Structure to design on (73 residues):
């Protein structure tokens, strides 16, 4: 996710608690969705869809923080 911001992501994960929480939640959802889609964890399609929407919202928020931090640097 966002390879052009790899260094900035690494820095923000340690320096920005809000960014770190968003990033960790995004990764948690990614893992859970993968497990549900591969039938490791049972789930209905509505649950998977809701989680995907939350993950997309988090990705948008992460991108916003990255763009703002990159322009401030």
């Amino acid at each position: 996710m966002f390879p052009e911001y790899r260094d900035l992501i690494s820095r923000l994960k340690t320096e920005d608690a809000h960014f770190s929480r968003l990033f960790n939640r995004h990764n948690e959802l990614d893992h859970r969705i993968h497990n549900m889609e591969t039938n490791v964890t049972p789930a209905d399609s509505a649950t998977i869809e809701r989680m995907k929407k939350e993950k997309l919202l988090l990705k948008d928020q992460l991108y916003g923080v990255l763009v703002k931090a990159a322009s401030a640097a």
Notes: The chain has a mean pLDDT of 97. The helical segments are 6-15, 17-37, 45-72. The radius of gyration is 14 Å.
